[in-house]
Structure formats: structure tokens, C-alpha cells
User: Fold this.
Amino acid sequence: MSSGAGTLPAPAGARLRSRSRPGVATVYRWELFKLRFQKRTYLGLGAAAIVPILFVVAIHFRHHRGDNGNDFAFASYLTKSGLVVPLVLLLFGAVWMFPLITALVAGDIFASEDHNGTLKTVLTRSLERWQIFAGKALAALTYAIVAIFISGTVAVIAGCIESGFNSVQTLSGTIVSAPKGLELVYMSLLIYLIPIATVVCIGVLLSTITRNSAAAVVGTLMISLLFQLIGILPGLSATVPYLLSTQFNAWQGLLRQPIDWAPVVRAAWVCAMYGIPALVAAFLVFLRRDVAGG
Amino acid sequence: MTDAPPDAALASPGPAPVEVRGLVKRYGDLTAVAGVDLTVHAGDVYGYLGPNGAGKTTSLRMMLGLIRPTEGTVRLFGRDPLQSVQALDEVAGFVEAPTFYPYLSGRRNLELLGSFDGGDARERIERSLETVELSDRAKDKVGGYSHGMRQRLGIAAALLRDPKLLLLDEPATGLDPAGMRDMRLLIRRLAEQGMTVMLSSHLLAEVEELCNRVAIVRSGKIVYEGAIAELKRSAGATYWLLTTNDERALAVCRAQPGIEDVRTAHGRIAFTADDAAVAELSQALIEARALIQMLTPQTVTLEDLFFSLTEGDGVINGGRPAGEPAAVEASR
Assistant:
């Protein structure tokens, strides 16, 4: 270390006391910056981009085998319009892919600070705990949004290459033009973000409570799968409309003529019912916790 | 440093940089900190000493607002760090090893922390890196840094805040001798520039050299707080005496006012006394025809006092006097 006095910061009397205070935006910006350097970010976003491509490749070979089965919603339309591909992905991605991609960052964003011991480093700067919490939670949500839109966009492009940018048949049987279909695809992605935001909240809660990245990621996925399990258990059909897993299908209301907003509205309040308590609990835990490790 | 009492600082207006009252932290049945009271005055280089598990780091974490006390209060320049992070505006430091994002470079870490500090903290990055001599490695990822480099980066991160109070937990731990020397020089330089420093350390010689005041903590309680010089004075000097007639000398010692804790060990007489009492004892021994062959003062070190306070009965004057083993060894 230098012993020359000239290299030291300004003496005490010259310091700026009325410092402009950082806020949530500062934390949010740096959290996004940090995500750029983490493998799990690229793992999640990579999966979001590659899965649609693999899916289209599978459609291609399936089509060439002459198998144009009708074993799930939209299946028969897959080869008629590329715009159907992102919708089918939304359908299947709800099982575990999108919850897992979301949990990769949401489950890690607080726990990794514990793992690295950096929580004490940032908590002794000029930011209130709530600002750090808000910035991190927003960054996790942003990552999830980016992942969904990357997946959707890659699916649209790959699907249109394979099956063309053609009109789409709605669930009501009407045909909508390709541009209108594209609009519906992106609106569907937006609606899909409602349950995804809830998964973010659950991931953030587990990340805060467990302080263990792996446990939080796996736990978030398990909770998501648990909802689906409850949905198929006999005798629990009355709960189905109120399960998180059901809300992943809310976007299908957009594909009816006229648009059925009821599932979207229900998704909003059902997801709020799960997400807000999870987020509030995570917030309170983070606000009051002792930072004794690291 | 020990001969530089912070009288001027004591007289300075405004609340003390650190004022801790009745600080308690319990984890279930375990009491990590059991009622700590201490005050760090402006300009102090304050040593916080204690054996492992004594509650030093837990206390420092409470001072930085990282841990909620079970009882008691912490005030940094009069403000409660639990109420608002503004209490840390003039404070910087680290507890245990300083930690950073391993996948970011040293400079990026400082940029992040500077942004989190606000104000003009980011403008101090280059100078802080120069101060800790990390400019050449600033572009490297922190994951590849040695422990010593991280420790230096921790100091750089603290300097970004341009603090008036620096709280350092074992700042020299893990450093090589040159690194320890440099850290010592840096702390001294910061103190000379008016920064108040509170540091915990196991390196007692270093604390003795750097600090003017100390708190010694044992089992979560402060057993001494004050100036090191005062601590040494209160301990009294230990003397070793050899005369032509030790039996008579022993009786004289026991009868002489100001001569305390008289005992024999290894063929010599040991006692504690101040300078005036020793002068009078010399006269009394001559009058009693017990002529002095050897009268050796044993210098009490902070280490002696530390062990006396943390391993003995916690009483400086009485019980096993500090420095006895060393004195016996020296007299052989």
C-alpha cells in the first residue's frame, strides 16, 4: 500500500457531506449489470431461445413423417401458421420450463448475496434495505420478462420460417389475419407474465428465507409443480380455477371471439393472492433479518 | 500512538463517533454480547480486543446495523443505524473478511459500491485504488484476488465513502508481514488526517502500537475500557528483587506501604509498586541490612494485561500479576 500522503482521498474537512442519495433505480441498474456476468442468466435465456428452435425442428421432422396429430390444443395448426408455435410453447412451458427459467434468477438473486457474503457489503453503504429489496425484485422480474419475450420472439421467427407467417384460427373457430395473430401472440405473452410474476415473488421469498440458491430454485419449481399436481388430483376440481397453474392458461381467453377477459381478470387476482403475500413476506424477512454470516 | 491522548478530540463538539450502551445480543440461550458499553471519541484509534467468540464481530455488526440488538443502543455520531442508513453516512468499514462480487473486476466492484454510496464517491475510485496499490490489478476479477488483495480492496471500498469513522474487523488478518506493516501505516496515516478508527484485532502488539484507547471484551462483556496507558498504570509495575538476605527483605516488603502482591518465586521476591514506593523500599532494605543485588522492573505489555483480563480473574491488581512468566524466564 502506498505510504505517500498525496494519494489519500481528501481529508475529513473537505468531504462532501450532503451526498446525493442513490435509490431503487441505482440498485436495479446494477442488478441488471450483474446478471450479465452470471452463468445462470445465460443458461435461462439460452434455454428460452433454444427450446423454441428445438420445438420447431421437432415439428419439421414430425411433419415429414406425415404425423400431423391432433393430440393437444393447436397441434393441428402448427404446420399451418408459424404464429401457433409460441402459443403451443406457452402451453407446455407452463409445466416446468418457464417456472424453472424464472426461478433460476428469482431464487438466486438474494441467496447469492448470502453465498458470496456480499449482503453485508451493500447493506453498509447509503441504501436503505427496502431500496435494495425493490431493486433486486425488479431485476428478477425484468429477467423473467426478457426470457418470456425472447422465447416468444424466437418461436415466432422459427415457427414462421417453418410454417409461414399465415393467418391463425382462434379457439372460437374464426380466422384472424397474420398481423392480428402476431398482435395476439404478444398480448398472450403479456398475459402470461401475470403468473410468471407470481413465480418471481415465490422465488424471491424462498431466496430470502432459505439463503440458499439451489434450495430456492428447486423449491420454486416444486411449488409450481405442486399446483399442477393438485389440479389433477381427483376430488379437488373445485380448486382448479384458483390454482397458480391454471392462470398460465389465462392468455387463451384472448384467442376467443369475442375476447374472453374473465380468465385474465381471474388470473390477475388469483396471482395477486399468491404473489403479494409472498412478496410482502420476503420484504419483511429481508428488512428485519440479521446479517450474521459472510 | 499510545502517548497521544485524544484530548483535543474529546473537547470537540458534537456527538461521539460511536456510543454503545447496554448492548446485548442473544441467540436463543446463547448470549453473544452481554451488555457492552463503550464510547469512541473523535480522533481515537480504538482497539476492540477479545478472544475468539468474545462477541467482537457481533458487536461490530450491530454497530453497522447488520444485526438487531436484543437490548441496548448504538449511536454513530448520535444516529441510530437501525433507524436509518443515514447513520452510516460518515462511517465505513467491514466485518470479518471484506466481500465482493467475484465475477466482477475490482474496479467494477468499487464502481458498484460508489454508486450505492451516492455523492462523489465514484470520483474517488482511482485514488482509493492507488492508496491500496491495486491499480494494476483493478481490471482483474475479484474471484482471482488473494486474501490480502481483497483486504486492501476492502479498505479502498471504505475510503470511497470518505468516512470520518472507520470500523475495521481484523484488518490485518491473513496479510503477510509486509501487508500488515502497510496496513498499519495506512491506518496511522488515516488517523493522522483526522479519521477516527475503531478496529478489532488479535495482534496485540499492533494494537498497542496503533491505538490510544482500547476495550477488552470477555464472554460478551467489557472488562476494560479506556486508555492503554491508563490500563498499564492501573496494573502497576511488577518488580523482581534479589538481596543479600531475602528472608529479611520479604518481611520488609510486606511491611512497606505501597508494596503490594508480595510473593516469592524462583528464588526471588516479586511485588508490584509504583516508582515512589520502590524508592522508599530501597531505603528500607538498606536500613534492614538486606542489600539489593538485583531490582528489575518488568514491563507490562498489553498482551500481559489482555491475558490477565481475559483468562485470569479479570482483576489487574491482584491474582496473578501480568508478566510473571516472562520475568522468571528473563531472570534465569
Observations:
- Confidence is low (pLDDT under 50) at residues 2-17 of chain A.
- The longest strand of chain A covers residues 168-169.
- Chain A has one domain: 23-288.
- Residues 23-288 of chain A form one domain.
